[in-house]
Amino acid sequence: MEAYRNDSHNHISNGLLLRSDIHTLFDLNLCAVNPENISISFSKDALPSGYQQFEGAKLDIKHIISPDALLKRWVIFRK
Known about the structure:
Radius of gyration: 12 Å
Order of helices and strands: HEEH
Distance between the termini: 17 Å
Structural class: alpha+beta
Helix content: 25-40%
Shape: globular
Number of domains: 1
């Protein structure tokens, strides 16, 4: 999930539809999608703010997501 830059990055495989607050956490690397099972994980800093209910939830994605993009973001999140 690369940050939106221009039309070359505007492809459905590079997109997730997330609730706006969760999208902000995603942009701040406070949550990420596990590429192995397409579930969402939150940082220990984000969990106390009411995101425990979503921890480990599987995303219902109807299109193919780039596994490389998910893995790249997952590695950054896990650091």
